[in-house]
């Protein structure tokens, strides 16, 4: 769909994020390659601790160092290498070019300032508006995220708003400076299904109307199916499958993706038991040898225990699994 | 089959004080007159948006919170009025597991101590040997190895901790377990393991569950009957097949429509309603859902609909249901 080189917005090559802990070094992200194209929604799917949030924070350069350490062969936003920017230049990129929303809007908003003050501060700081213009722009921003009676909401404190409203305010703040990329880290996980549906609708509306590319981080397959166009599935710090959303749901390739899809209860069919991926997520301090998924994999062969598979191309997808290697004696 | 637990006109109000921090004073009608029954070995699902009172129901049934009004009948015996001492035998019959698996285990107790505690309190064991054997049996029951006994909660993963919470609930051979969002804090691949375990144990130990959750997929899988709550009221109560295929209440229909589908959408589905639940401090008059209902009539704002049986094992509280 969007595969022209000029359309690439963000390109990551071999991103590694490590944390030094008392028990050893944790490679939260262990060499991932990602590209986000303009105006697309890329879903990052994975369980807790697989490195999805660390990826987003690394892009924003918000990983505290020490104990964290981020390195990449390439981390380019529109051809600008983010790693070489000074802190001052980077703070211009945050908000103006890339912005981020989090799972818990209550802790992301300052409880001691009104919504209006927080929105206006951001507009005055990033766009250099005076107070008056910022006020009107703030109302505009709240209107875009469909908050009713926006002018009255500006004087509310975050605790006076409901969860869905807070997430809308976060979205308004994130989109106020019309960034080209929005990193949404589990934006609907803390919300009710009904409100989740509204926020997802709003996100896809923002994406099409304001032409924002969205990197949507989630553990929820349903959310991915709803709005993403391409999906990267992560497991224990690496991307195990890269596919379009249609391919991912129609014919998942990696055994982990297959297991995840099969373990969800279906609405349409009556099931006796749910399919299960045996075992648990590996300890990041003590990763299995070879393929990280092999202790839980139903198709595990000799080579899986010994050597980590590279990403193999399979039709339009990419998959990190020896099953798709050609001419290898398994 | 006779019902194991019956709830009649149960109410739980929270009174807000007039203090320095809270200027408002008022009453939150978290649970406002609900009736339902749970049969033996049955799973009753309880769903609704946050703040609809589903967790309050679970806690009031166990008398962790006292009810404002109404009756809770366990095998015909009203346990609402019993004293603390009289209640003890019933405590053994009804247990609860919570969403927050880390918070529900004492970090200073080993798994063995945590599982042994209820057995000691209820004097069900004689001597250390028997205690150890019983704890080992409980761990095996939930699919863990008995060696985990001397570990501490922080050494275990989330799924394992939820298994321990379940083992502790099972220690007293209960008949009913209230499961308050037991899998929503777990990873997808672990959720399925715990759900399978819950269903296996139901068969093995003859348990009834009240399964409180907001994930409608999970609720459908595990429940026999489902009650949908909205602002303290049950708006629809039906067998799961009936509920998922022929939902009568507009709220249930909207809830079902907002479940994300597992196939990429070819077109965006219509949004059935907008807005969020009104404050339980001032619930709308008449039918509480009328302020968000796309089919609301004048009558809905004036008159409160009662929960009426419209079909076999299908009751709904809506003025439009008989159309």
Can you walk through the features of this model?
The complex is a heterodimer of chains A (330) and B (323). Helices cover 33% and strands 23% of the residues of chain A. In chain A, a hairpin with a 2-residue loop joins strand 12 and strand 13. In chain A, the strands form two sheets. An eight-stranded mixed sheet of chain A has the order 7-8-9-3-10-11-13-12, sandwiched between helices. In chain A, strands 1, 2, 4, 5 and 6 form a five-stranded antiparallel sheet that branches. With 323 residues, chain B is α/β, with parallel strands linked by helices. In chain B, 31% of the residues lie in helices and 23% in strands. Chain B is built from ten helices and twelve strands. In chain B, the strands form two sheets. Chain B has an eight-stranded mixed sheet, with helices on both faces. A four-stranded antiparallel sheet of chain B has the order 2-1-4-5. In chain B, strand 7, helix 6 and strand 8 form a beta-alpha-beta unit. In chain B, helix 3 crosses helix 4. The longest helix of chain B has 18 residues. The chains are: A alpha/beta (330), B alpha/beta (323). Chains A and B meet through helix 7, helix 8, helix 9, helix 10 and helix 11 of A and helix 6, helix 7 and helix 9 of B.
What's the structural blueprint in terms of helices and strands?
The complex is a heterodimer of chains A (330) and B (323).
Chain A: E1 8-21, E2 24-37, E3 41-45, H1 52-59, E4 68-71, E5 74-77, E6 80-81, H2 87-96, E7 98-101, H3 105-108, H4 115-127, H5 131-144, H6 150-153, H7 163-175, E8 181-185, H8 193-209, E9 213-218, H9 221-227, E10 230-235, E11 238-244, H10 245-250, H11 255-262, H12 302-306, E12 312-314, E13 317-319
Chain B: E1 3-16, E2 26-39, E3 43-47, H1 54-61, E4 69-74, E5 77-78, H2 84-93, E6 94-97, H3 111-121, H4 127-141, H5 158-170, E7 176-180, H6 188-205, E8 208-212, H7 216-222, E9 225-230, E10 233-239, H8 240-245, H9 250-257, H10 298-302, E11 308-311, E12 314-316
């Amino acid at each position: 769909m969007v595969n022209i080189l000029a359309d690439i917005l963000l390109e990551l090559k071999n991103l590694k994020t490590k944390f030094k802990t008392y028990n050893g070094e944790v490679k939260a992200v262990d060499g991932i390659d990602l590209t986000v194209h303009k105006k697309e929604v890329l879903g990052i799917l994975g369980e807790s601790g697989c490195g999805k949030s660390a990826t987003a924070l690394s892009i924003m350069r918000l990983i505290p160092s020490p104990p964290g350490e981020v390195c990449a062969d390439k981390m380019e936003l529109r051809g600008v290498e983010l790693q070489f920017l000074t802190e001052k230049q980077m703070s211009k990129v945050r908000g103006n070019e890339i912005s981020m929303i989090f799972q818990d809007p209550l802790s992301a908003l300052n409880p001691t300032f009104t919504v209006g003050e927080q929105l206006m501060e951001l507009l005055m700081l990033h766009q250099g508006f005076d107070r008056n213009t910022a006020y009107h722009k703030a109302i505009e921003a709240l209107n875009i995220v469909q908050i009713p009676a926006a002018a009255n909401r500006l004087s509310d404190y975050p605790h006076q708003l409901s969860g869905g409203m807070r997430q809308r305010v976060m979205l308004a703040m994130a989109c106020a400076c019309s960034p080209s990329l929005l990193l949404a880290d589990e934006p609907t996980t803390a919300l009710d299904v009904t409100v989740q549906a509204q926020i997802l609708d709003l996100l896809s509306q923002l994406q099409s109307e304001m032409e924002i590319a969205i990197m949507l981080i989630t553990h929820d397959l349903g959310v991915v199916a709803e709005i993403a166009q391409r999906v990267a599935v992560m497991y224990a710090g690496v991307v195990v499958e890269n596919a379009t959303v249609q391919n991912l749901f129609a014919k998942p390739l990696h055994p982990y993706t297959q297991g995840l899809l099969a373990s969800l209860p279906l609405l349409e069919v009556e099931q006796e038991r749910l399919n299960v991926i045996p075992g648990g997520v590996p300890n990041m301090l003590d990763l299995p040898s070879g393929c990280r998924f092999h202790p839980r994999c139903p198709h595990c062969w000799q080579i899986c225990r010994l050597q980590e598979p590279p990403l193999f191309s399979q039709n339009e997808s990419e998959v990190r699994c020896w099953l798709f290697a050609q001419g290898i004696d398994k | 089959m006779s019902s194991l637990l019956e709830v009649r006109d149960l109410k739980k109000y929270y009174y807000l004080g007039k203090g320095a921090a809270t200027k408002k004073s008022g009453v939150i009608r978290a649970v406002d007159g609900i009736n339902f029954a749970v049969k033996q070995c049955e799973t009753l699902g309880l769903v609704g948006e946050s703040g609809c009172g589903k967790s309050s129901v679970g806690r009031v049934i166990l008398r962790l919170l006292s009810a404002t009004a109404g009756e809770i009948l366990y095998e015909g015996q009203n346990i609402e009025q019993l004293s603390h001492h009289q209640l003890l035998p019933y405590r053994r019959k009804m247990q609860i597991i919570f969403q927050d698996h880390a918070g529900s285990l004492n970090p200073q107790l080993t798994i063995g101590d945590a599982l042994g505690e209820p057995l000691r309190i209820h004097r069900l064991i004689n001597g250390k040997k028997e205690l150890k054997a019983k704890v080992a049996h409980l761990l095996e029951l939930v699919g863990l190895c008995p060696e985990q006994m001397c570990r501490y909660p922080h050494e275990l993963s989330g799924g394992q901790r939820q298994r321990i919470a379940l083992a502790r609930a099972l220690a007293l051979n209960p008949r009913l377990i209230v499961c308050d969002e037991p899998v929503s804090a777990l990873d997808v691949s672990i959720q399925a393991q715990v759900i399978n375990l819950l269903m296996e144990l139901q068969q093995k130990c003859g348990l009834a569950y009240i399964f409180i959750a907001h994930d409608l997929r999970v609720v459908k899988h595990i429940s026999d009957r489902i009650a949908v709550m909205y602002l303290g009221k049950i708006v629809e109560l039906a067998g799961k097949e009936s509920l998922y295929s022929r939902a009568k209440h507009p709220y249930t229909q909207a809830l079902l429509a907002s479940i994300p589908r597992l196939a990429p959408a070819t077109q965006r589905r219509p949004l059935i309603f907008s807005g969020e639940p009104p404050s339980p401090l001032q619930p709308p008059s008449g039918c509480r859902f009328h302020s968000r209902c796309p089919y609301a009539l004048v009558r809905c704002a004036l008159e409160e609909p009662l929960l009426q049986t419209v079909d076999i094992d299908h009751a709904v509280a809506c003025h439009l249901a008989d159309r």
